[in-house]
Request: fold
Amino acid sequence: MMANFLVLVNGWYSKNLVTGGEYHMLRVLKDWSLQHKISLLTPKLSYQATKEMLPDVDLFYFTSAEDDEEIKSLLKLTISYITRIIRSVFIRPKDGPDLIITASHFLYDVLPAVMLRRRYKSKLVVYNHGVLEPYGSDNAGLRGNLMLLYEKLGLFLCKRSADIIFAINSETKEFLIREGFEPNRITIMRNGVEHELINSVKVNAKEYEASFCARLVKTKGVYDLLDIWEKVLKYFPESRLVIIGQGEEFSSLQGAITRKQLDKNILLTGYVPDIEKIAFLKSSKIFIYPSYQESWGITLTEAMACRLPVVCYNLSVYDFVNDGIIKLNIGDKDQMTSTIIDLLSNDTKRMKLGSTAEEASKKLKWDDISKEELNAVSALLNK
Reply:
């Protein structure tokens, strides 16, 4: 039976920066829209990305009116989130929703969802793509503290109102249980890989010795990358690293590359479309990912699907994959450097590891993940 889903994706702050949580939400909705009617609330600045991914979704409510490429001012972002909350509360869908879904557990999604839930007597599903609170010390500053506040208030409302919470990993589930959430309301989810898109991209040569792709923030280890690559260059002076992504550290990272005189050996691309991103990955030999904090690691699995061996720090959230990936001691840049040098020196070993990585990535299919989550949602509606 067709149901009406009302989805809130209020967290966008850049046209060209889609977080893993936002992508996950849009990707499963793409499949769900074949069976159910989807109404989606999203800021104006994310209209184009949303429309491209969800061409079959008819209803869009613009919960804010930004036209910027990216909201950089903390004051402007705060005002924008407040505006989105208020406008979300006053929307009137043509058909009352059977289910309200939030793309995150933060206040700007959860508060209006809870109020709409009460109005329409709907069920509520909340996606939690990783909690900030355990890493509070890594989110210093006004912006980080503001996000922690949004999280704390959002979780307070979720505990009392959410019928299902999709948690990105077991660590997130355990945290929620410690915070008093009922275990039977928490379902662990997964992320997938766009194999069809990746397989459609062809490249002619390996132009880069290594690649990195993520949001450019300190916790992704972006400055470790520079230190590591400086050491690699002592053994392979002509080697090149491509850093793909956009984020708060972009300008600072570009400055550090120039100061270290690494411009000839490191390409910082900024935002690139998905096809171009995949082309860059396939044009490299190794994927380096010295991230200190992850809830999953979508780009890591995309690199694996591009037949790249992955060298990363050993985070517990990577327990879902063990093949084609080399996990090293967290923060050990010397160990990562020697591992990269070894792989660049041994074509046979590197190519074998890349083949293993590609095979392991085939287990992560979006179609399967969409069905798993829709089954959980359907069971809730059928109660």
User: Anything to note?
Assistant: The chain has two domains: 4-192+365-382, 195-361. The mean pLDDT is 91.
